[in-house]
Specification:
One of its GO terms (molecular function) is lyase activity. By secondary structure, the protein is α/β, with parallel strands linked by helices. The protein contains five helices and 26 strands. The protein has one domain: Pectate Lyase C-like.
Length: 367
C-alpha cells in the first residue's frame, strides 16, 4: 500500500475512533476533545488534602499515590515540592474545591508518565529553577492514556512545559501555558490524538505545541512567540485541524509568519478562521492567515467534531481566553501573564529564570 493510501486509511480509522470518544464524554460537564473519555477517580473514594506539606498524612503527594480516588482540598496555597510527584492512574484532582485563592505546586515536576485515566482541573504547576533537574518538565504525561487538563496553569517549565510524548487521547483546555525557562518550549505531543482548546500560550521560543500527532487546535491564543504551531521536519504523516486561533506578535517575535513553523507537505492541514496580528501596536487588528507552510491542504476537517468545537471567531476567542483561561481565581503569576498579553505587542519577554518577572517569592508569586 502506498504511503498516501496508508495515511488516508489511518485518518479514516482515527475519525471513527475519535467519534466514539466524543460520544463518551465522561470527565465532567463541558469536557471536550479526545481526553474527555477519562472518568478519573470520580466513582472512587474521596480523599482530602488537608495541609501544604510535601509529604505525609494529608499531603498532596500521599493523596495522589493511590488509584481510584477523587481528590479535594480543604487548604489553599502553594505546595513546595522537594522531589517530583508521580500520579497514580484513575484519579481526579479537583483544584476548584480549594478555598480562595486556590491551590498549586512549585519547584518540581508532576508526572503522569505511563498512567491512564486522569482528570486535573483548576490546578497550578510551576516548576522553575528550584528544580535542579533541567531534563524535567512542569507536567509530564509521556506514554499516558486518557488525560484531560482543564483550567490549569503551567508556568516555568524547564524541558517542556507540558510533555506528552507517546500520550494517547489527551485534552488540554482553558489553560495557561506560559513563560517556559530552560528550553523555553510550550508543549511536545507525539502519538495522540490530542485536543488543544481555548488555551493561552505566552512567551515561548517554540512548541506551542510541537504536534507529532493528529491534532485539534481550536480557539487558542498565542502571544509573543518565536515559533508557535510546529510539526517539525521529522514528524511523520499527521493531520491537523487549526481553526479560529489568534497569533499575536510581541517584543520577542522576530518573524510573525512563524506562527506556523516547519509544516511540510507530509502534513495534512485544515485551517480556517485563523488570524495573525504582526504589528505590535497595542491594538488587536490582525489579518486572516490560513496558509500553513507547505502542508497539504484539506478541504474539510479530519476530525468530525472540530467544527462543532469552533464556536468562536479568533477575535471572540481572544476575549474569552483572556477572561477565562487558567486556574481560578487568578493569582499573581497568571495576572502578570495576562497583563503582558493585553499589551498586544508592547510588553512581554522570553525568560530564563522566573525571578526575572519581578514577582514576589523569587518569581513564583504569593498564593
Amino acid at each position: 500500500m502506498s504511503i498516501a493510501r496508508t495515511a488516508r486509511a489511518y485518518i479514516c480509522n482515527t475519525q471513527l475512533d475519535q467519534a466514539a470518544i466524543q460520544v463518551a464524554q465522561n470527565a465532567f460537564s463541558g469536557a471536550v476533545g479526545f481526553g474527555a473519555i477519562a472518568t478519573g477517580g470520580n466513582s472512587g473514594t474521596t480523599v482530602y488534602v488537608t495541609n501544604l506539606n510535601d509529604n505525609g498524612t494529608g499531603s498532596f503527594r500521599t493523596a495522589v499515590s493511590s488509584s481510584n480516588v477523587n481528590i479535594e482540598f480543604s487548604v489553599s496555597g502553594y505546595i513546595e515540592l522537594y522531589s517530583p510527584v508521580s500520579l497514580s492512574s484513575d484519579i481526579t484532582i479537583n483544584g476548584q474545591t480549594a478555598p480562595s485563592p486556590g491551590i498549586g505546586t512549585f519547584g518540581r515536576e508532576i508526572s503522569a508518565s505511563g498512567k491512564s485515566n486522569i482528570i486535573i482541573r483548576n490546578f497550578r504547576m510551576r516548576q522553575g529553577n528550584l528544580d535542579t533537574d533541567t531534563g524535567k518538565s512542569a507536567f509530564n504525561m509521556g506514554t499516558a492514556t486518557n488525560i484531560i487538563l482543564d483550567h490549569c496553569s503551567f508556568e516555568y517549565g524547564q524541558f517542556d512545559t507540558v510533555d506528552a510524548v507517546g500520550a494517547v487521547n489527551i485534552t488540554v483546555s482553558n489553560s495557561i501555558i506560559a513563560l517556559p525557562i530552560g528550553q523555553q518550549f510550550g508543549a511536545h505531543v507525539e502519538t495522540g490524538p490530542s485536543t488543544f482548546y481555548r488555551n493561552l500560550w505566552v512567551s515561548a521560543h517554540n512548541r506551542q505545541p510541537l504536534s507529532k500527532d493528529d491534532t485539534q487546535y481550536i480557539n487558542n491564543i498565542v502571544y509573543n512567540y518565536q515559533a508557535a504551531y510546529t510539526s517539525a521536519d521529522t514528524a511523520g504523516y499527521f493531520s491537523h485541524d487549526i481553526i479560529g486561533n489568534y497569533f499575536i506578535a510581541g517584543p520577542s517575535t522576530t518573524s510573525a509568519g512563524d506562527a506556523y513553523f516547519q509544516m511540510a507537505s507530509d502534513q495534512n492541514v485544515y485551517a480556517t478562521g485563523n488570524y495573525i496580528d504582526s504589528n505590535k501596536d497595542g491594538v488587536l487588528n490582525g489579518a486572516a492567515s490560513n496558509t500553513v507552510g507547505s502542508a497539504t491542504v484539506l478541504s474539510s476537517p479530519w476530525a468530525s467534531t472540530s467544527l462543532g468545537l469552533a464556536t468562536l471567531t479568533a477575535a471572540e476567542a481572544y476575549t474569552y481566553v483572556i477572561a477565562n483561561a487558567g486556574a481560578s481565581p487568578r493569582d499573581q503569576v497568571d495576572a502578570y501573564v495576562v497583563s503582558t498579553v493585553e499589551s498586544l505587542g508592547t510588553s512581554g519577554a522570553i525568560i530564563t529564570n522566573q525571578a526575572s518577572t519581578g514577582l514576589s517569592n523569587d518569581g513564583y508569586g504569593t498564593l
